[in-house]
Amino acid sequence: GIMSVGTARMNVYTVMQATQGLADYLNSKYETASVAIGYDSRINSDVFSKQCAEVLAANGVKVYIYPNLIPTPLVSYAVMRLKCQGGVVITASHNPSKYNGYKCYDPAGYQMTEEAANETYAFIQKVDMFRDIKRIPFEDGISKGLIEYITDDIVEEFYAKVLTRPINSEVIKESDIKIIYTPLNGTGNIPVRTVLSRAGFRNVTVVPEQENPDGKFPTCPYPNPEIKQVFECAIAMTEEEKADLLLATDPDCDRVGIAVLVDGEYVLLSGNDVGVLLTEYMFSARKEKGILPEHPAMTKSFVSTPLVNKVAAKYGCNVTDVLTGFKYVGEFVSKLENEDDFIMGFEESYGYLIGTHARDKDGVAASLMVCEMTAYYKSKGKTLVDVLDDIYAEHGCCIDRLYNFMFEGASGMVKMSEIMTETRNNPPKELAGLEVFKVSDFMEGAITDTRTGEKEPISLPESNILSYVLSDGSTAIVRPSGTEPKIKVYIAGCGKSKDEAAKTADSIGEAMKKLLKI
C-alpha cells in the first residue's frame, strides 16, 4: 500500500499491528518460533523491518534479521537454512516509490498460501494497534539474544548455491559478451555483480545513476523491468559501444528483465519470451551434457505462455500449471519427491526460480542463467531473438500481451468486483471473430465446453479468475491482481508468423476491453 496515515496504508501502526498478529499466530502453532527478516531499498523499509523485529522479540519469537538491505530470495533461503517458522520481507517489489509492503513466509520458505495467510489475518484483525502491541527496543532485543543479525556466511552460502546452477561454465569463462546491468536503485547491485564475477563474466558495467540504493528511484519512477523506460539509462550508455545484453533487476531483486541487440536496436523481451528461452536452453543444455533427469519437473503460473509446455514436452517434461502467485511455485518445489528433478519454475511477470535453494523467484540466479544462455548462443553465432525464432518455427508462434487497468481506492475495489461479476454472468461467445471453445471459471471450479455444454472440474484452488480458449488455440485470461489495485488481462495470440500472432493478440485485447467495458 501507499505509505501514509490510515488503517489501509503502510505506516508504523499497520506494520506493528500486522506483526503482532503474526506473532500471535506463530505462538498459537509452535512452542518456540523464529522468523527471518529482510528489507529492500525503499523509503522506511529499514524502519519497518526493525519495528517488526521489536514486536516479534517482545512476543518471545526469536528474530534473525539481515543487517543490510537484501534481495527477497535471500530471506527465503534464510528461512529454510535457519529452520525458521516464518519470514518477513519489507518490500513493494516493482511499485512506485510511494508504496511499501509486508510479505510473510511459511516454514518451507515460500510465501504463505491461503490457509496460513487467512489464519494469520484473523489474528491481525483482533489486534488493536494502539493497545495490544507488545514491543521492546531493538538494542534490548539484541543484548538479550532475542534479535540476532544474520551473518555474512549465510549470504556466502547463498552465492555458493547459485553458482552451482551454470551448465556450461567453460563457455562463460571463454565468453567476451558485454553486459550492462542496472539494479534500479535496489538490492541487486552487490549480489548480482558478485555471482556474475565469480562465474567468470569479465565485462559487466553498471548503470551509475541506478547503482546505489535509493527509494525515490529518481531515474525510473516505475522501477519495473517489464517497462522499457527503465532501460533508457542503459541504452544511453551504448551510444559509443554496443552491449550484447542489457540486464535489469527490480528493487527487491526477485524479478529480472532483459533487452537484447537486434539490428542495431535494443529489443525488450517479455517475461514469457525469457521463460521460453530458458526452458529451451536448460533442457537442451542438460540433455547435451547428459545431466537431464529421467523425470524432469517444471512448473509455471497458468497465465504464462502455453508455448513453454510445448518446448518442455519435447524433452519429456509435463509442465505443471499453478495459480498466479509465486508461492504456488515454491509450494510445488517443496512437494517434489526428488528435488534434483526440478528444472525451473516461472511466471510471465519476469519471475524465475532456477534451483531449489529458495522457494521464491530469484533475480540473482535468473540473472546468472540469462547471461550464461546469452554467452552460449553467442558462441553458436546466434542472438536470443534468433533462438526465439527457431522455437517459433518448430512449435508455432505465440505472442503475448498484458493489459493492466488501474482501480485505486475503495471505490476501485467495488468497480473491479462489479466487472468480474458481470463478466462471469455473461461469458462471451466469441472474441475478435474467434469462437470461444472453452470457458474456465476458477471461482466455480469448472471448465465448460461451449460446444457441448459439458463441464470438467478444475484441479486448482478456488480463485477469482476467468479464462477463455478460442477456436485457433489463442487464450484470454482476466483476474484482479492480488498485490495491486488493478485488473489484469493476459492474452496469448497464435499464428503462423510473428506478425499474424501479434495481430491476433492485439485484436483479442481490444475485444476484451469491450467485454469488460473498460
Number of strands: 22
Low-pLDDT runs of 5+ residues are: none
What's the gyration radius in Å? Answer: 23 Å
Structural class call reads: alpha/beta
Strand content: 15-25%
How would you sum up this structure, described in words?
There is one protein chain. The chain is α/β, with parallel strands linked by helices. The mean pLDDT is 95. The protein contains 16 helices and 22 strands. The two termini are 24 Å apart. The chain is 37% helix and 21% strand. It is globular. The strands form 4 sheets. Strands 15, 16, 17, 18, 19, 20, 21 and 22 form an 8-stranded antiparallel β-sheet that branches. A 5-stranded mixed β-sheet has the order 4-3-1-2-5, with helices on both faces.
What's a quick, concise take on this entry?
This protein has 518 residues and is of the alpha/beta class. It is built from 16 helices and 22 strands.
